[in-house]
Design a protein that fits this description.
With about 280 residues, the chain is α+β, with helices and mostly antiparallel strands. The protein has 2 domains: about 150 residues, no CATH class; about 90 residues, Alpha Horseshoe (Serine Threonine Protein Phosphatase 5, Tetratricopeptide repeat), CATH 1.25.40. Helices cover about 35% and strands about 30% of the residues. It contains 7 helices and 9 strands, in the order H-E-E-E-E-E-E-E-E-E-H-H-H-H-H-H.
Length: about 280
């Protein structure tokens, strides 16, 4: 009986230590993901409320650095390079700090790698980009601090900030046009070696037109002759063997073996040696 009582008390103690009361956060976390052109843009921030207070000029003083939200630093992430006020932001994550004023705000994209805390002053080596944007009065009260991405085009958008009775929009650009033109140029030049390689291997595996597969794999090998790839040459040997071209198969296998040995790839070395033995070349 004493043992059972002891176990019950021990269990109760562990449960009481691990149990936690869950209540809503005063400034709930928000994560916004938006595609702008070909760029993924992610905003992560916390959303304080007005709650009957005077925000700008009081709770958030004019002329002082603000974390642009609550709790952890507000963070924006770009999957590609972006531009702010003619300045390039490399792909990656940045804290957004602001210095509110009555008619315009200073906006700073900061990259010191920290997740929390507001700097007393900006260290210029960590200032990735900055801009001054005009603020506008809103004729109604916005209770919850809000960041959004709007005015979206193929190559630009704005980070919109609205809270209490203040609104501002921070323009940014993304390199959509350059990416699209590069993609078009690449496609217009025709299939690459990997396209030919994958198509040929698929035809081999699925028992389709082996002559077509042979044309494609030979094209892949030709396109990579300056930097031979043993895995492509391996498939060339198998496709030539399947097509009845034994000499072509042996030649490709020997090349694949050579480059596999140079790369130290034991698996391909063995596969090529096995095939060469099967074809009477070793």
């Amino acid at each position: 009986m004493k043992k059972l009582l002891f176990l019950f008390l021990a269990y109760s103690t562990v449960y009481s230590v691990n149990a936690q009361v869950q209540t809503p956060a005063p400034s709930p976390f928000c994560k916004l993901e938006q595609k702008v052109g070909l760029t993924d843009v992610t905003l992560e921030y916390s959303r304080p409320g007005v709650k009957g207070r005077t925000v700008f000029g009081d709770l958030v003083p004019y002329g002082k650095i603000w974390r642009t939200g609550a709790n952890a630093r507000t963070k924006i992430t770009f999957s590609t390079d972006a531009t702010i006020n003619g300045q390039t932001l490399k792909a990656g994550s940045y804290s957004i700090f602001t210095v509110p004023n009555t008619e315009s705000w200073e906006v700073v994209f900061y990259n010191d790698g920290k997740d929390s805390g507001t700097p007393n002053e900006f260290d210029e080596q960590h200032v990735a980009a900055k801009a001054t944007v005009k603020s506008y009065p809103v004729p109604f009260n916005v209770e919850t601090f809000t960041l959004d991405i709007n005015n979206i085009t193929n190559s630009s958008a704005t980070i919109d900030l609205i809270w209490e009775k203040t609104y501002l929009a921070i323009p940014f650009g993304v390199p959509t046009d350059a990416a699209v033109l590069a993609s078009i140029d690449n496609i217009m030049r025709g299939p690459g070696p990997n396209d030919y390689f994958q198509s040929a291997v698929y035809y081999l595996q699925e028992g389709k037109d082996i002559e077509k597969a042979k044309q494609w794999i030979d094209k892949a090998v030709e396109m990579t002759k300056d930097q031979p790839r043993f895995w492509i040459l391996r498939q060339q040997s198998l496709i030539h063997a399947k097509a009845g071209d034994k000499s072509g198969a042996i030649s490709a296998a020997k090349s694949s073996l050579k480059y596999a040995e140079e790369a130290g790839n034991a698996d391909y070395v063995k596969m090529n040696k096995d095939s060469l033995k099967e074809w009477g070349a070793m």
